[in-house]
Write a structure and sequence with these properties.
The protein has 481 residues and is mainly α. It has a domain at 170-269. It is 72% helix and 0% strand. The chain has 27 helices and no strands. The protein has helices spanning 7-18, 22-35, 40-52, 56-69, 74-86, 90-98, 106-119, 123-130, 138-150, 154-168, 172-184, 188-205, 227-232, 234-247, 251-260, 271-280, 286-297, 306-316, 320-329, 334-337, 340-351, 356-386, 390-419, 424-433, 435-438, 442-454, 458-471. The chain is elongated and about 90 Å long. Keywords: Cell projection, Cilium, Cilium biogenesis/degradation, Coiled coil, Repeat, TPR repeat. Required for polyglutamylation of axonemal tubulin. Plays a role in anterograde intraflagellar transport (IFT), the process by which cilia precursors are transported from the base of the cilium to the site of their incorporation at the tip.
């Protein structure tokens, strides 16, 4: 009877693994294990193959059996803990690490413990563990960058990642983290530089991943969630590219970024991709988008912005009852996932449906606080200009733009209360009070124009409409009829 040690089987298995045909190798190895349940070679290769197709639960089962059959081999205990960690079984992974008793594996053990604590959002414990590593260890710089980023220190995180890049050379995950840091700093051109490098290397080095073929209309099969795909950081890079295009209001570019990524079946999609698909296509496929976002909320982990985006999109599409239900059913998520601004805004918006006067008062309080903050930033900007401090000017301007967006959002929601009552004089009054901070904003100008038009103040309305129309001349198409 043939065994895994037989030359024919060994050559076949190793060729399949070399060609990255892990699923076929798994099929043969499972057949061998049915005949020889304690075969060390079969279990070891099977664990390796499962790990590479990211079936970490089955990989963990293989390595668990190996730790029982060969307790003297400390590497199996490490592989078992790594597989549990990758499967999201963090307490079990920590327990498995305690079984390790090898000075040679101590550094790897500390690094894995650090990753576990980071994923458990125990950042202080992760930092303490990380400090056990030598400061010149490239992984120290990489992981310290992650902790700095998590702490909101994006510039410091970026510097840490760039230092690690100099030592380690090109790594897709490291380049992605640098791009993410630049994205958080609103430096989109630099972020796109690193994203482009990830994508171009992926196209050049992994033609089997069918990058961009779906966008071109070519029918392609799923490439699966292999470890190779994970190591290229392509999915993360395309999602970040989509986010940047979305922020730049280039919806077509955002959609293409999602279809350019290596193709996978619906059930293979990760939570971030599902979230971005829902968000970017919400106007064309609202029902599908809401379904995806609601589904994500049921998962043990989901993108942090999912909860807020679902509530805001329900409100945007005037599904206020659904928004209220989601908020009530997930009250425990509000503190963790909603900023005070978003929570207050949603509370006022939902109040509009039953008590518009009370809602107006809530919006007015928010508007007053934002006005104070905008004036403070205006003063800081003037001081930075006098001091010719370019870095401070840049930071303050970014903060001002974000705050102005929030202010205009509150202002429009407040004005809509009177717009719905056709009290256009009151709407105009609200807009006039906000001219100090909004007179350069096209959204504000357009709504001012609308309310003037509704009051038959056509000449004044044209004064607001005309600059906006001229700005968008290139988008106008003419008919020959």
């Amino acid at each position: 009877m043939a065994t895994i040690k037989d030359g024919e089987y060994t050559a076949t298995i190793y060729k399949l693994i070399k060609d990255r045909k892990y699923v076929e190798a798994i099929h043969i190895l499972n057949g061998q294990l049915q005949k020889h349940t304690k075969s060390r070679a079969a279990l070891s290769l099977l664990g390796f193959c499962y790990f590479h197709i990211q079936d970490f639960s089955n990989a963990a089962e293989c390595y668990e059996q190996l730790t029982q059959l060969h307790p003297e081999v400390e590497e199996y205990k490490l592989y078992y803990a790594q597989s549990l960690y990758k499967a999201g079984a963090y307490p079990e992974a920590t327990k498995a690490l305690f079984a390790l008793d090898s000075p040679n594996l101590h550094i790897k053990m500390v690094k894995l413990q650090t990753c576990i604590k980071y994923c458990e959002e125990d950042y202080s414990a992760a930092k303490l563990l990380l400090e056990q590593l030598p400061p010149d260890d490239p992984d120290y710089m990489f992981n310290m960058g992650c902790l700095l980023y998590q702490d909101g220190k994006h510039e410091e995180a970026c510097r840490s990642f760039l230092t690690a890049l100099q030592v380690l050379g090109y790594l897709p995950a490291l380049s992605y983290n640098i791009a993410l840091s630049y994205y958080s700093l609103k430096n989109y051109p630099q972020a796109l530089n690193y994203i482009t490098e990830i994508i171009e290397r992926g196209i050049r080095e992994h033609p089997e991943l069918s990058i961009g073929l779906k966008t071109e209309g070519i029918d392609v099969h799923s490439v699966g969630n292999t470890l190779v795909l994970h190591e290229t950081a392509l999915i993360e890079a395309f999602n970040l590219k989509a986010a940047i295009e979305y922020q730049l209001k280039n919806l077509k570019g955002a959609q293409e970024a999602l279809t350019d990524m290596p193709p996978r079946s619906e059930e293979e999609l990760d939570p971030v991709t599902l979230h971005n698909q829902a968000l970017i296509n919400i106007d064309m496929k609202p029902s599908e988008g809401f379904e995806k976002l609601a589904f994500l909320l049921q998962l043990p982990s989901f993108p942090r912005v999912t909860f807020g985006n679902l509530l805001l999109l329900y409100s945007k599409h005037e599904y206020f009852d659904l928004a209220a239900d989601v908020l009530a059913e997930n009250a425990h998520l509000t503190i963790k996932f909603l900023s005070p601004y978003v929570y207050e805004f949603l509370d006022a918006l939902l109040t509009c449906q039953t008590a518009p006067e009370e809602a107006f008062r809530k919006f007015d309080e928010m508007s007053s606080r934002l006005t104070e903050q905008l004036r403070r930033l205006t003063k800081q900007l003037q001081e930075a200009r006098l001091a010719r401090d370019d870095d401070t000017q840049k930071k303050v301007l970014q903060e001002y733009d974000l705050l102005q967006d929030k202010y205009i959002t509150v202002l429009m929601a407040q004005a809509k209360i009177y717009w719905n009552r056709e009290n256009f004089q009151m709407v105009e009054k609200i807009f006039r009070k906000s001219v100090e901070f909004c007179n350069d904003d096209d959204t504000w100008k357009l709504n001012v124009a609308h309310v003037l038009f509704m009051q038959n103040k056509y000449k004044e309305a044209i004064g607001f409409y005309e600059p906006i129309v001229k700005k968008h001349y290139e988008n106008v198409s003419f008919s020959g009829e």
